[in-house]
From TrEMBL:
It comes from the Bacteria. Its main location: membrane. It comes from Occultella gossypii. CDD domains: TM_PBP2. This is Carbohydrate ABC transporter permease. Pfam families: BPD_transp_1 (PF00528). InterPro entries: MetI-like (IPR000515), MetI-like_sf (IPR035906). The chain crosses the membrane at residues 12-37, 78-104, 113-134, 140-161, 190-212, 263-282. Residues 78-282 form the ABC transmembrane type-1 domain.
Length: 296
């Protein structure tokens, strides 16, 4: 890099500073992950000997993962989280794209009123108590659908996709109408493929939101068998964890080799693996969708 800018010392110094800053930021983001992984691979005896601060264990062990993956509580919570993370974004994208397609029509009667209603939902929230009462009145309380249906429409994503659709050349839609396609075919065969980058970006945001959410499950669910993985993790990490935390730790940490701290860190690692696996496949569409949506 310095050779490339040999004729410009100021530019070479600037590039060195930029790369050094990026390296420091990357290391600062990577260090907590390395610490968590190291703690999850450390036995209880080594944790005590090293004062519960281990980055690279001297004698790594996968006992925490073996015990963790043998827990029925964990697998049940993983199933709930996967179900929510798969079905939730599909529902959100379906309703959001349909709403964006309709609101993108400039000759739609009452379009301004509908857009105002969408904007109001972005600026103002109903609050926790009204939301709980809605879940109770609709019979969704203590069901997995209470984690999915409240997020069925992404208002911000709806506006982004709407602006994306509005910038599609009208010649394409006019040609499709001449060919005799109906509104459903227009949306699914023409609009959705063209708006795929924006849809992928919104889908990625929703996937992450559904995967990391736990507070709505804490509020709406009483049945512990419906708890998602993040709520189980929260209960394990919280100092106020109840019977679920105690039962899980007692069933898992039944020897002196692996302690609760290693099990907690192993649970953290397990909870972030799916996102790390999904993100590389959507990164190209995610960046392009965010960029194009922001420009539009």
């Amino acid at each position: 890099m310095i050779k490339r800018f040999r004729g410009s010392p100021a530019e070479a110094s600037y590039q060195v500073v930029v790369h050094f800053t990026i390296a420091v930021v990357a290391l600062s983001a990577l260090l907590p992950l390395v610490y968590v992984v190291g703690m999850s691979l450390t036995s209880q005896g080594e944790l005590i000997a090293r004062n519960y601060f281990v980055i690279i264990p001297n004698e790594p062990t996968i006992e925490a993962y073996r015990r963790l993956l043998s827990s029925k509580v964990l697998w049940n919570s993983v199933f709930i989280s996967v179900f929510r993370t798969v079905v939730g974004p599909l529902v959100t994208i379906a309703f959001t794209v349909a709403g964006a397609y309709v609101l993108a029509k400039k000759d739609l009667p009452g379009r301004r009123i509908l857009l105002t209603m969408v904007l109001v939902t972005i600026l103002f929230r109903g609050g926790l108590i009204p939301s709980y009462l809605v879940m109770q009145q609709t019979g969704l309380l203590n069901t997995v659908w209470a984690l999915i249906l409240p997020l069925a429409v992404d208002s911000f994503g709806l506006l982004v996709i709407k602006m994306f659709i509005e910038n599609i050349p009208t010649e394409l839609t006019d040609a499709a109408q001449i060919d005799g396609v109906n509104e459903w075919q227009m949306m699914t065969r023409l609009i959705v493929p063209l708006a795929a980058p924006a849809i992928a970006a919104i889908a990625m945001f929703n996937i992450v939101t559904h995967w990391i959410s736990w507070f709505d499950a804490l509020v709406y669910l009483q049945d512990q068998s419906l708890y998602p993985l993040q709520l189980v993790l929260r209960n394990m990490l919280s100092s106020e964890a109840g019977s679920l935390n105690d039962q899980m730790l007692q069933s898992l940490a039944d020897s002196q080799r692996i302690g609760p701290e290693s099990l907690k860190m192993a649970t953290v690692v397990v909870s972030i693996i799916p996102i790390l696996m999904v993100y590389p496949f959507l990164q190209k569409h995610f960046i392009r969708g965010v960029y194009m949506g922001a420009v539009k």
